[in-house]
Amino acid sequence: MSRPPRGRGLPDGVLPSIRPGPAARQPRACDVGTVHPSVHIMDTDATGSRSRSVPGAQAVARAAALLRLVTAAGEGGSGVQELARAAGLSRSTTHRLLTALRAEGLVDQDERTSRWMPGPELFLMGSVAAARYDVTHLARDIVRSLAVKTEESAFLSVRRGDETVCLLREEGSFPIRSFVLSEGVRFPLGVASAGLAILSFQSDAEVDAYLERHPELPARWGASHDAGALRGRLSDTRDRGYAVNPGLIVEGSWGMGAAVFDHAGRPEWALSLTGVEFRFSPDRLPALGRTLLAHAHQLTTRISSARRA
């Protein structure tokens, strides 16, 4: 059986798309026109094992990272230099791997722009895998209802190893939005609202192991993501029942996240809301929290029922 969320409610932080360095100006919610979603590929699988520790798997790991980056780039695709920089590879190595992937139909290259994008084989593979892994058909109307009732942008994210991946986005009716999350964008657990909600319902041993695997979080995402601060937010999330990130990554942009559980009670997905700061006032937060938790519970129940059928 799925576990019901505990506690009352408050807001959670935005799912960011940029990683400001120590001296960089923190982005603001009103910067939505200049913020471009990015992806952070973590080198761990679902069990936490580092892929590079598998003998002979370096080329596979590099190709998989490029596939994730190409997929996260969206319909416009990505240039080879961008992909090389994001993957930490040389331009020649990146081009060689992309060429091999294109030969297998896993990526494609636009003849006019030379940008790389997902290939037809990925669509075919995904169609087959969807029968086992996809829950978007169960969640779409719930995410839409969440956006309608709160007037904020609503999202469904799934856990994938040590990251969350956005699967669905529904725009709310409020005209000022924070365009920092879209389908396919990934973030480490504990950084965005969805990942914070999911991580908070892991066991203490799993949280310890995650933090041990990823000491780089403060350097990449700021001091507010060191182990002590993150543990504090995880504890608060357990008490409230949902996560809160009050503009820790994108200034002025707030969000909330609530975990969605599978039939065994594992937190595998999350629903989240994002919006500008003044929309998450203390007077409004409790109502938003109740609405978010109710929708997360509805989706948990629906997923559990579907898997038993």
- CATH-defined fold name of the largest domain: Beta-Lactamase
Beta-sheet strand percentage? 15-25%
Q: What's the pLDDT, averaged over the residues?
A: 80
- The total number of structural domains is 2
Span between N and C termini? 14 Å
Question: Radius of gyration, rounded?
Answer: 19 Å
Order of helices and strands: EHHHEEHHEEEHHHHEEEH
- Give the helix level as a range of percent: 40-55%
**Approximate shape:** globular
By secondary-structure content and strand pairing, the structural class works out as alpha+beta
Q: Helical segment tally?
A: 10
Q: Identify the CATH architecture of the largest domain.
A: 2-Layer Sandwich
Name the poorly predicted regions.
1-41, 43-52
How is the topology of this model organized?
Elements: E1 12-13, H1 58-72, H2 80-87, H3 91-103, E2 107-109, E3 116-118, H4 120-133, H5 136-150, E4 153-160, E5 163-170, E6 186-188, H6 193-200, H7 204-213, H8 217-221, H9 227-240, E7 243-244, E8 253-261, E9 267-276, H10 285-308
Antiparallel strand pairs: 1-8, 2-3, 4-5, 4-9, 5-6, 7-8, 8-9
Helix pairs in contact: 1-2, 1-3, 2-3, 5-10, 6-9
